[in-house]
Amino acid sequence: MEKLKFEDIKNGQVMQSLKDYAIEFSSQEIVIKASQQYPSIFKEVSSNVGILNFRNFVGECNFLGKQVKVSSKKISRKNYQLMMADIVDKMAQLPFDFNTPTLTNFQDHGMENPSILYHLFLVARHFLIEIENNVSTCLENIVSNPAEKMERVYREVHIWEVKHLSTRTFNSMLTSPHNWLPVKETSAISNTALAKKIYNNKSSYSIPGVVEDYQVIRNFDTSENRFIKYFLQICLDIIQRFKLKIINENRNMVNRSELVEQCTHMEEILEEWIQHEFFSLVGEMIELPYNSMILQKREGYKEIYDFYNRLLCSLEFQLPEEKLKRLIENKDVAQLYEIWTFIAMINTLEYKFNMTPKRSLVIKTDEYRATLGSGICVSYEYKGLDVKIWYNKTFYKGKGSYSLTLRPDIVLEIGDKKYIFDAKFKLESLTWDQSSEDDIEETSTFTFKNGDIYKMHTYKDAISGSVFSCILYPNPNESDPLFFPDGTGNNGVGAIPLLPSNYLDVLGKFLKKRCFNIEE
Questions:
Q1: Are residues 184 and 293 in the same domain?
Q2: Are residues 142 and 202 in the same domain?
Q3: Residues 198, 171: Cα–Cα separation, whole Å
Q4: Looking at the structure, do residues 155 and 242 belong to the same domain, yes or no?
Q5: Does a structural domain hold residue 298?
């Protein structure tokens, strides 16, 4: 435990997650204020001392006016960003059966649903401020090389200014006699064939003075540009709704001020673009031009079109609302890691085994309605075998589980065999006595509990068809999985170190050997 005086804490000071800090204050009033505003991370222990522990929070936190940076020894800031990017990317890539983004009216989904709003905010924030080729970069490309159409604009000009002779020009001569000009008989013009033809029998001549001519101009009010403007308005609506929800939320949020600042920053970006001179020349979208080659091919347009489709897809990739709240509002890195391990498993199957998802489903069920389980399921086919990967599949007692109702983080099904994986962010390192599986040792330097590995035995023994159960944990110092066979074959329990920097190779080799029986 580290002891600090509150007045000595500097803005930008780095503190560690999952670490106790004994903070000494100048008055009891400030201690009470801290315990009321931050009940999830601060606990009063005396009249002028409290314990501050950021738990799994990572990032910046405004603690009583002090801007503190909270880091984790297990997950670097770079790995945190990579995991978030993996999640957002995969939310848009999975081909959910009921998803038809090119034909769907975005607003039909209704953003009043909190779960949908959290998903949309996560994706919108990613494309607005978190990636290098963000929305602003794409819009700069669009404005520098915009889609346009050439239009004829007709206007009245003096006859000596005519540049294009068209049917409309001649019609304007004949139908607008009030625009004709008198010509003196002594004028050279009166001797022309045209003047003689239109002689008015009153000893005077007239010729057309003003006629219609056209000018070809560039018009930026195209269906593609209307779509881009529509996309910006959607993003602004998402950000404003989410900001209002965060401001009005009564629950404690460690990350509230940072989220509000992010929303304000994104609002400013979007409003500046919507008010840009270019978009003042663009009307409102009537229909989505999903067959447009400009949207599909041209720089800037194709990225925005992709962003839009990803927003639509995120409406269907329904991660649990409570998990997203913890991930977004409290920057819970343990929750992020759990979700990311599912994405890592999907990416490994697709990249290392060349699998393409056949379908993706979000299963809604309870123990009275189905035996399929609940959660997200992605289906593949590999060498004639049905392969499914589940997130939070539920095995009810008597319906998939021999004993208790169980819900592991990840279930990989290959044919009739099941392989169980559970994310354990609290693991930092593992030192097991491999001489005896029944006598697993713990080091004194991490919070690993024997109960975690015992739970793997529970999964393996209780879930019908289970071959093995493994822990997935972050450890920057390890890359080799640990596996303890139970009898013959691949039955057993184990632990696999996973981080964005190594997961494809580590998990790919493990799955080849233990699940697909491929020897390298």
A1: no
A2: no
A3: 15
A4: no
A5: yes
User: Domain total for the chain?
Assistant: 4
CA pair distance 364, 269, nearest whole angstrom:
38
Q: Is residue 92 part of a domain?
A: no
DSSP 154-207: EEEEEGGG-----HHHHHHHHH-GGGEEEE-TTSGGGGSHHHHHT--SSS-EEE
Minimal CA–CA distance to 197: which of 185, 188, 187, 205? 205
How far apart CA 103 and CA 23 sit, in angstroms, is 56
Give the tokens for residue 262: 């992010």
Handedness of CA 339, 405, 55, 34 (dihedral sign): positive
Q: Are 17 and 72 in contact (CB under 8 A)?
A: yes
The distance from CA 20 to its chain's CA centroid, rounded to whole angstroms, is 33
Structural domain of residue 193, as residue ranges? Answer: 151-219
15 and 39 fall within a common domain: yes
In a domain, 443, yes or no: yes
pLDDT in tens, 25-60: 999 999 998 888 888 889 999 889 999 998 888 888
Q: Is the whole model's pTM more than 0.90, yes or no?
A: no
pLDDT in tens, 487-512: 777 888 888 989 888 899 999 999 99
Q: What type of residue sits at position 205?
A: Y
Give the rounded distance of the alpha carbon of 113 from its chain centre: 17
Tell me the two tokens of residue 265: 């920053």
Q: Is 430 part of a structural domain of the chain?
A: yes
Structure-token pair, residue 144 = 């520098």
Q: Please classify residue 26 by burial: count the beta carbons closer than 10 Å to its beta carbon, then call 0-12 exposed, 13-18 middle and 19+ buried.
A: exposed
